[in-house]
Structure formats: structure tokens, C-alpha cells
Amino acid sequence: MANSVNISIEAPIENQIQEITYDGQEIYQAPLSMSENLARLAQKIDFSKSDDEFCNIKKEGESSTDPKPDEESKDAGYQSSLWPWESVRNKLRNALTEVCVLADVLNIAKEKRYMVLDPVQPEQVDNRPMVQVYGRKKALGAAAAVLLAGVERLRASENMRINRNMPDFHIDLLRLRQNWRLKKVSNTIVGDLSYRTAGSKFSQTGVFEVTKAPEDQMMQAMSLNAAGPAPSALRVTVPPELQGVAFISVLCQKEQEDVVTATLSSSALNCPGTLPGDGAELHWQQKLEAAQNVLFCKELFARLAAEAVQLDASIPHMVVGNQIMATVLPGIQLLIGLCHNNGQNNPNANPEGVKTEGAAGKSDHDHVLEHSLHQLLRAVHYANTHHPFPHPATGPLGPSKRRCLAGPMAADRYELLDMSKEQSLLEQIIQQAQHFFMRRRSEYVLDTIAKEVKDPLIVSHWNALNSPTQSCVKINIMAYGYDAVCRTSLVVHVGEKTLKCICRDGKVRHLSYELQELRDLIYCQIYQHQMTAVQAVGRCMGWQLLASSAHLGSGPVEPLGNAASCLLASPAPAGDRMIAIRCEPSVGIQVFIAQSPRKDFFSSELVQDKKWENLGGAFKEIKLDKMEGKNFLNKMELLMACLSSPS
Amino acid sequence: MGVTVLQQYPVPENKTGTYVIELLSKRILALGATQQGQFLVDCESYLSHPQMGTTKTVHILHNSEQPASVFSILESGTKNIHVIADGLFDLLMMKLSQHYTSKKQTKIESKGPRFELGDFCVKLGSVTMNQNFKGILVEVEYRPCVMANAVWGLLREFLQGLLGPTIPVQPPQHLLSRMNEIYTPIDTVYQYLEHFSAYRKVTGMRNA
């Protein structure tokens, strides 16, 4: 049995587990001793049951029963037994008394001297069958009438539903129940459409009532649109403050001269009139969804308004009526408004109605920011209901994971202060709006530069993945046909109010929201690129770099950056040609050439020997715009080729 | 969190603790420091019940610099074991009062003004045990550095300048073995515990 398997057999647990210690050991209760077990079992005996039977026997045997044993047994039940056999003893004693009495009675009856037992004729029940039959018939008839009436009503309503294609109330109620929270309060059905269960802490309630639609209205509705979907048998009543349509409008606009006109025109929130179709005819699902949306928008706006009042910004946020005004960047305002049209007042009754139409066209509603606002509030709701794990039973509920760890990690007061800061929704949405503007402006600047500057190509790649407050663009500067020779790339991180540019040389520049700075930086990069590129082309052509300087001290002062220059000499054996390039961001690129020693030498009175020609001669400027070539580098390549060819 | 050095400052004869605190405050304010509130470090010790075998001591310390934490150090013969927990640990100790009894009369604390001077943070604490003044402890923290070895020279020079040339400035006993390790808040707590234990042993004022 080489491959036998060991099977461990364990006796089943016969004893109850009293406790499990922390190391997993189980402590069993000691088994009961025989006497204890007997006492336990004896206590389980239901003496009252046998008592009852005994009483029944007694009833048959004796005409009268004495109530004493019953009372005694009751007393025994109430009394807490002093020792486990107390009740058993009492019961047995009672039983013994009963048995003795029975034995005496039997003895007396058996002797037949004192008593004779005669069979007793059972009492004749007075049964008149016809009366009973009539009584039963009447009772059954009444019950049947009730049932029939009910059936008749059900059948009538069912018939009506089938014949006239009426919807069923209960089926509709079932559907409603599947999607919404309902409860029955006395005789009415009440539902709740608030976001309480999803973590909202908004005080306003969202109670609605469900009733059965009157039949005549259903008929009317069905006759009106026979082709459309069947009207519901349900009627949902939402409170008047939740009726209609609401949405949060987010506008970004340039600040106008007069703040008052700004508020007036910005109140031009063109509300859509109502939902398609009139309020009464709406399907309950759409109606409830609309009401829920109204509630959500109200909560969002209430929260934002409270935050706007609490926050102390450098330029205070304004809350006027159902409008919040916040300054995003200098000259740009963010307007958040709550538009609620409850369908009761005519929108044209508003005197500003005409004015609003015109103003609404100017700055249109920002759907992305509106969506972000919704998302932010949903995130708040989610955080209210989802606490980070683990939550120990003794620990407080609510603090973030970082705060939970702050104690054991010995966080100091600065870290704790940092944790207690919480960004409000308004701050977050302002940051998103700021980023949105920064991104749009940077895009605009890069596009216009790419349009203006044709010679080095400027290619910008925007990262497709970005966060609501940060995005990243990579800018490549290169010349057509020479992208393998030299390319300059830089990365710009667009933040909320600042830009961070990481240049090719590893330098990091922080720029403000003034985008002229970005423009200047890109222009400087373009000219730097031209200088490095021409040097790279020179290397490829075998030219020698004699000198180069990125920051020339000579010449007029530049408004932005510094002039750069470089000096190239023709390939080694001859080496008699030179090209000097000077690049000023404000002027452009100038190219000069010189030759030394010149091929032809005529001695004069001042310069008598040819050796002086090696010192270098006068530079002559090249008219670049007259030269052949697609771009600057191409022209330089042609120029170098032309100069280095032996002539 | 940087490297912290705790230094005992002797109180001269027939002078009070408040006099010394004022003297040092004047000196540090003259250096250009600004006062940033108060600080408090307190220590309470619990003795284990004799029935649990050898008697062990648990020190519970709070430092106002880490307001959310409770530091506990268990002295068991040769080795000290520390646990850093959050505020609920105090409640746990109450529950354990059957096994660990608090020695109320040895509750000791150091409190006083807190100054900031550039990267330095200076705390002038007067040590009291049961409302009895016991001495002065000067805490100096250099915040940008976390390695004691790298900053000890600077801290010694600063302390010498602040406390005067008569006070000998030695690296704390606790730090000697940990000069090349990263400094953590519990190291500060150990230093306080060392000094507090020394204060408890002497009666009256400690001047050594």
C-alpha cells in the first residue's frame, strides 16, 4: 500500500462551543452529567399537556371538575423553581392526589354497595334540518352576492379596458414601483423622488402623490391621439415648486463696461417653454424625471449660492436673484444661473423677454461646464454615501483616508491644516472655467503663430487625454525637408491661471495668463531654432563653426530676447569663405558673406602684402528674399553649396 | 518635519522659570523671530498590574506639533517599543485601567511659547510636574533637513548662540545612534521622554 492516503478522521463536535479564543482554539462546554441531563430532560416534559388530557378524562368520569389543579399548575409556572426538580415534584404530587381520588372512586363503584354506575343517555340535540338548511343557504347566498358583485366590477373594468383599450392601473403602478420609491400612507400612495438615498443632504423634499386617472380624462386623451401610445392610468402629482423644466445655465462672457447691463443681459437665460406636450398629458415617467431634475438643479444652485457668499475672493462673487457672477480671469466673467420655468407664468409676460432674445445670441450656454457642475454635485453625493474602507466600529465615520492615517503617521499641524481644506464646487468650477479659457487662448495663439510664420513649420500636438484643469501641448518647430536635421520641441502645460513651458534645453518657464508672454516665448524659440538649424546644416555640408552666440551684446536693444549670431567657414582645404548670420527677433535674419584671402590681390599703399588679406575682409549682405530656395535652410544650403564649390 | 534637538537650560540660583523664559524670548526675538502661538508636550505614565508578571511602564505622550497623534512608548526592560496612534488611543488606555494604572502624580508637561525664525522653530518650554516647576527645556527644530548628521553642526552653533557659551551643547543621547537615519516625529518624543524621566528622578529643580 505504497500509495495509500492518510485520512484523518475527527469526531463530530458533540459538545457546544462555549467560546473561540483569539488564537482560534475552541473551548467546549463540559458535557452534562447524567443527573444534570435527566433534570434538563425532565424540565422539558410538558406536564400541562398531560394535565389537560387528565382533566378531559376527569370530565368524562366526573360531572364537575375542580379548578384547583389548573391554578396550581399556573402558579408553578410563575414561580421560579428553587431547585430544578421543584416543578416536577409539584406535578407528580398533583398527579398522585388525582390517582388516589380515582382509585377511591373506582373502589366505591366496584363494591356496588354505595354507588351504582348507570350509563347516561347522551342529551338529544334538537335538530330541525330544514331550519339549518335555510340558515346555511342564506349565509352562503350573502357571501356569494359579495363575491359576484366584486367579480362583476372587475369584469366590467376589465371589459372596458379590453374593449376600449384602456390601460391597467395596477400594471402601471407596478412599473412605477420598479423605478421609484413608493409607500402607502393611509389611503394614498406617496412617492419620493429626492436624491436622499443617493447621498443628497438637501432640505427640500421631493414627495409626489400617485392617484388613479379619472376615466373620462383617459377616454378624452385616447380619443385625441388614437395613434399615439396609450395614456397611463396613473396620475402623478408633483408639488408645484418642482413642476416644469429647470436647468443650470453657465455662461462665460467678457466683462462689459457697466455691471448693471451685464446683469440685465445675462438674465437672458432663454428657458425652453415646457416639455413637449402639455403638463397634464405627460407620461408619469417623464414628469417624474423632470421634477427630479428640477430638484437637482435647485440643490446645485443653492449650494453654489451658499458657497459664493461664503468664499472671500479678491473680487467678490455676486449672487443676484437666481444668478451667480464670478470673475474667472480679468475681464472674463462666469455666470451661473438657475432657469426654472414651472409652466405657470407666461415667459413673454417678462418685460425683459424681448431684450433677452438678443443678448442670448451673444454668449451661448456652455454645456461642458454645466455638465461638469452636475458631475461635481454627483461626486459630492457619492462621497456622502461611500466612506473609505476600513471603517472600524469604534472609529468616527466620515473623515478621508488621509485623515484616518494622519494620527498613526504623526502628521504635523501643517499637513492637518492642508487636509482640512476642501475645495468648494464653485471654486472647482471656476478653476475649470479658467482652464478652459487658458486652453482656448493658447490654442488661438499657437494657431495664429502657425499661420503667421511659414518658414519653420510650427506643429502643435494637443494631448487627447487631459483633466478638467490641466492639459498639455507639445510644440514642434522644424523646417520643411530638414526635420531630420534639426527640430526644436517644447512642451506647454496649460494650467488654471498659469502656463508652464518646458523647453528643449530643460529650462522651465512659468508664464502668466497674459498670452503675449507665450507668443514672445514661441517667437524666441523660432529664432533660436533657426540658428541651431543653420549650424546643423553647416555641419552636414562640412562647414566649420567659427563662433556662435545666442545672446549678442552688440546692436540695438531688442524688445524681446536677444540677437543671436553665428559665423561659419567653408570646408577645410580652401576655407576662404565665411558666412555670418545674425538673427534678431524684431528684424529677422540677416546673412552676410565674406572671402579671405581674396583671390585677386592688388597691393596698395596701405596694404602692401597679400598676407594681410588673411585677416578677413568686408562682409556683404545677401538679399535672402531674392534667393532661390523653399525656406531659409534651403537657401542656406544652396548658398553653402555655391560658396564651397571651387570656382 | 525636520531634525529637532532638545536641550535642558539650567535655571540660575534665586531666579524663577518665568524670568528665564522671558530672557530667552527676548534673545530670540532680537534675532528676528516671530512668535507663533504656544506649544505643549505632556507625558503620562501607566504601570502594569503586578499580576501580569514583571511590571512594565507605558508612557503616553502628546505633542501639539502632531495634534492628531498619540505616542505611546512601552518600557520593557532593555527594549522600548513605541506605537503611534490617533486620538482614540487615550480612550483605549482608559479601558485598560484594570491592567495599567495611571500614576497621576507623575504627569509631567512642558509648555510655553513657540517661535519661528526662518527655517528654525524654537520652543521654550517650562517643565511642570503636578503644577510644580521643574526646569526649562529648549527645543530647536531645523525644518528643511531630516538627517541629524547633516545638520548637527548648524544646530549646535544656533543653540550656542541662543543659550550662551556657558551651556554645554551635546547631541542628545537618543540621537547618537541614529545620526545617519531619517528623523521622525517619534525621535522628538523619545528625547522628551528622556528628559522627563530625568526630571522625575530629582526632587526640586534639576540643574545638571
Automatic annotation (TrEMBL), chain A:
Phosphoprotein is among the record's keywords: no
Protein name per the record: Mediator of RNA polymerase II transcription subunit 17
Subcellular location: Nucleus
Disordered: annotated span: 58-79
Keywords, ordered alphabetically: Nucleus, Transcription, Transcription regulation
Organism in which the protein naturally occurs: Chilo suppressalis (Asiatic rice borer moth)
UniProt feature, compositional bias: Basic and acidic residues: 58-75
Family, similarity comment: Belongs to the Mediator complex subunit 17 family.
From TrEMBL, chain B:
Primary location recorded for the protein, binned into one broad class: nucleus
Pfam families linked: Med20 (PF08612)
Subcellular location(s) per record: Nucleus
Keywords for the protein's UniProt record, in alphabetical order: Activator, Nucleus, Transcription, Transcription regulation
Family, per entry: Belongs to the Mediator complex subunit 20 family.
Functional description taken from the UniProt entry: Component of the Mediator complex, a coactivator involved in the regulated transcription of nearly all RNA polymerase II-dependent genes. Mediator functions as a bridge to convey information from gene-specific regulatory proteins to the basal RNA polymerase II transcription machinery. Mediator is recruited to promoters by direct interactions with regulatory proteins and serves as a scaffold for the assembly of a functional preinitiation complex with RNA polymerase II and the general transcription factors.
PANTHER family, per database record: MEDIATOR OF RNA POLYMERASE II TRANSCRIPTION SUBUNIT 20, UBIQUITIN SPECIFIC PROTEASE HOMOLOG 49
Oligomer status and interactors: Component of the Mediator complex.
Protein name stated in the entry: Mediator of RNA polymerase II transcription subunit 20
